[in-house]
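Continuing the series of single-chain predictions for the mutant panel. This is the parent chain; the variants come on the following pages.
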Amino acid sequence: MTAALAVNPAPAPAPARDGDTTSVWAAEVASSEWPRLEADAAADVCVVGAGIAGLTTAYLLAREGRSVIVIDDKAPGDGQTSRTSAHLSAVLDDGLGRLERLHGLDGLRLAVASHAAAIDLIDSICASESIECGFRRVDEYIFAPLDKREELDHELEVARRAGLDVEMVPRAPLDRDTGPCLRFRRQAQFQPLAYLAGLVRLITRSGGQIHGRTHADTITGGETATVQTGHGPIITARAVVVATNVPVNDLAVIHTKQSAYRSYVIGARVAKGAVTEALYSDTLDPYHYVRVHPGSGHDTLVIGGEDHKTGQDPHPETRWDRLTTWAREWFPMMGEVEYRWSGQIVEPVDGLAFIGRNPADRDNVYVATGDSGHGLTHGTIAGLLLTDLIQGRDNPWAKLYDPSRRTLRAIKEFASENLNVAAHYADWLKRGDVASADDIAPGQGAVVRHGLKLIATYVDESGGRHECSAACPHLGGVVQWNPAERTWDCPCHGSRFDPYGRVVEGPAISDLSQVDKDPG
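Parent structure:
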């Protein structure tokens, strides 16, 4: 008997408070319900990460008769999949014109086809396996401010070349006039945790094992691959799939080709049917995206955007304020904001995920990363592609998503992102955020200089002081305090830690180093 994922939206205070980042999906998954791996184990495939990429891969492999073990630090769905805005779209938000420039028309067509296939697969699984998750086909509308209307004309031409079902319409079906916009047919939406709950049921029914509270310390490829867990047991497998949003087994190769961003989301009630069910987005920078989450007695508007690079905004809480201001202009009928949260988007320099064999590793170690804001479809593509690779089959998308690829047309993006990272290593020369830990308010954190050292100092609500090295254990960036979510965020490659320095998000796989208490 397996534990169930929580899938019903839970009530949240209205209005939302500082530090309250409750998702509308109510990702209250108690990892204690999922048994920790307590002894050595073996399987055909070990999947590290129990989000949509890992669970889809495990489900498809189990369906083909492979034995699978899935492990996660927490519990199924308790990572970035629970923080999605739950759009299912083949209209890639990096811009179809940009993707055509970077990958050519054939590459763009393959990318669009792969995302459409991912939506079709979710549709098929929901129907054939009787997963009740509110999956439904909806149209998607993209609109632009007046001075950018010519961009829509260009995107329309490219979208048609890519094979999308698209047309220009006079306006989106909103109370406020959007002006001409693009309408894309047969996109979709669903309740992501309900879908993952269905995959969990199917994996365990097929004999697959799922273990929470099981941290992967070391992943080693070879004729027999091994995963050394943090608390002792070792998993041996013919293949290992690392599906952890960012690969925790890769030190630098992939991380130089992608960057971490925080994206912000709010949820607010509207009357049933007050907003037409569809996907909506604009072309502002930063842009906004909207959809309707149907409920009993009322609907919830899910509004996202206002992205910024992880660890590179000292006042991220203002992003929710900006979202709310924008939303009230467009949807004056919405009630108080009841939910708000943020998620980690991993943006490759060329706009497409890295899915396949891990560079500079043995052939039986695979990764899935670089969601590029389309984590649900990229994660499902990963399941399809990695299953084919592990099963020894050709896949038409393999070259497009190859983690070893070099997209020469993206050299400017590559240089820009890595110059940004390099600039943040100069943080080691700074004085610190405050002169003394005595200047830190209860419930907040700051980086304090102690001689040659920078100390990440958190002061809890009772005034207790908790100090760690400010050096990210991944590649030594200086972490920054995130007052919106009370985390330490690395501005170099996006690792994140709780107030006490415990790792909550990779690529770091270990905590911030503890230091002695300030003798002063």
